[in-house]
Amino acid sequence: MSAFRLSTWLWLSLIAAVGCGMFLVKYQVARLDDELGRVNRSIDADRDQIRVLGAEWSYLTQLPRLDQLRQRYLTLAPITRAQLGSLDQVPFRPGEAAEPAIAAQPTSPRRPSVALPGGADLVSAKPGASR
Length: 131
Hints:
Elements: H1 2-60, H2 63-73, H3 81-84, E1 113-115, E2 121-123
Antiparallel strand pairs: 1-2
């Protein structure tokens, strides 16, 4: 009879251990579920904030509004040629002379040119040539 009681006690202790394990797992799952709910609420709040910021950005970058602000606060005018200056006004390092004009350079065989918008031509450089 003591063997029967020993096996009964073993089964009861096993059932108690499994029951405790189930309660621990249940509380861990409940904690993780609460954390998941907090994270989802935080994500929803961030998405709402992104929508608000997007609407604010679209309002702030409206072209008529920006033009009105430009007229009110900026005194912009088109750039004139006199403001740009010329290459002669650029100071060179001591001992360096300005490069001779393109027309004064010795003539070389005509290199192929590529037409650019606005009527300008782009002349390809010689391979290996450096300034």
